[in-house]
Structure formats: structure tokens, C-alpha cells
Amino acid sequence: MPSLQEIIDANPDAETFRFGDTQVLCDEILALVRSGRKTATCEAMRVYGDGGDAFPEVGRRDIALEWDGRPAVMVETTEVTIRRWHDMDAAFVAAQGEFRDLAHWQTGYRAYFERTGGWSDDIEIMCERFRVVTDYAAQGA
Fold it and tell me: Which residues are in the ASCH domain (predicted)?
């Protein structure tokens, strides 16, 4: 398996990121991504720009990390939209793979947004669809 630096050197436009804000959540989400059940994610718009994370771009390939920083999977962004909290729909929630329904998503994401900077009924949310390009665990990690 290539090192993270080798992957970055071969993909200089790639960003690195972790799913979730705890190791348990990161592990659970990566399992859903690897199974093909999770093909979408979202994040509060406040984390992007001016010293924050790079905004996802359609066609860009980024590297999701294991909690300990090892490369987990490379994903390619296939769609990016911005919506407000109250505009989230059941189809996008289903593509995230970890929620029973919209109400379950609202409970989970409200708690996540409150832990990571605040929540409001009109919070702007980046919604990204992606596909897995490479699973580094499958390469003998």
C-alpha cells in the first residue's frame, strides 16, 4: 500500500479529511462507505474558506483518512449542492447510509452541528455525493 505522502504526491489536488468527529463515528462511517451504502455526506458551510477546509469540487479526488491518519479511501466528488437545514430531503438522507429517515438525520446532525460550532434552523449545509475510487484497506493496509 502506498504511503499517504505517496498518494498526495500522485494526486496533488487531493484534500485529506476524516469522516465524523470521533474515532467511533469515523470507523462507522468508513465501514458504510466501503460497503457502498454511503454515497453522500454533508457539512456545515462554516467550515469552508478563510483558513478552513477546501470546498468539495465535482471531479476532484480526495483522501478520507482513518482516525489515526492512515489513508482509508479515495473518493471522487460527483455532485455538490448547498441547502439550508429545513430543505434537507429524504433522498439525500438515504444516500448518507447511516440514518433511518429524515427525523433520525435531524437528531444526529443537530447534535453534530451543536458539538462542532452551532446549529440553527437555517444553517447552510454543503451536500456532497461521491464514489469510491480506491479502498486502501483492500490493498493490504
Answer: 17-134
Longest CA–CA separation in the chain, Å: 44
C-alpha cell, 117:
460550532
**Domain segments of the chain: what residues?**
4-139
The pTM score is 0.92
Comparing CA positions, the residue from 9, 44, 39 lying closest to residue 114 is 44
CATH topology of domain 4-139: Sulfate adenylyltransferase (3.10.400)
Residue 82, pLDDT above cutoff 60: yes
For 94-119, write each residue's pLDDT tens digit.
999 999 999 999 999 999 999 999 99
The CA-based angle 85-91-92, given to 5 degrees, is 50
Pinpoint the alpha helices (H) of the chain.
4-10, 23-35, 90-96, 102-115
- Average the pLDDT over 115-131 and give the result: 96
